[in-house]
Design a protein that fits this description.
This protein is mostly beta strands. It is 6% helix and 42% strand.
């Protein structure tokens, strides 16, 4: 069914999200600022438990499920995503570490 949907709307690709991951660490939150964004997206981690802000994998996925960017070994306290080259639309930011996974939506508007 998903393949049919993606084909119909021109979003078929070999890499797409079937079930986007949800936040696995209870009490953990991440805020993306500003949202909507035009040039630069900042990640504001609001962790209530003792999680390191280092060694995160960061993925950017478009609304069709295509992985646009993957970066490993990132420090969340210093990470900024340049969105100036992205088309207007809805995107997903996936953050993964050894103890944490979260998917956040963000919107690009120029």
């Amino acid at each position: 069914i998903l393949e049919e949907y993606y084909s119909q709307y021109g979003c078929i690709d070999e890499e797409y999200i079937v079930n986007p991951p949800t936040n696995l660490a209870s009490g953990s939150r991440v805020i993306l600022l500003p949202n909507p964004v035009s040039e630069e997206l900042k990640i504001l981690p609001l962790f209530t438990e003792d999680l390191s802000l280092e060694n995160f994998e960061i993925q950017v996925i478009d609304n069709c499920g295509k992985v646009l960017r993957i970066e490993s070994n990132q420090n969340l306290s210093q990470y900024k995503l340049n969105t100036s080259s992205y088309s207007d639309g809805l995107y997903y930011l996936v953050l993964k570490s050894k103890d944490f996974i979260s998917t956040q939506k963000f919107i690009v508007v120029h």
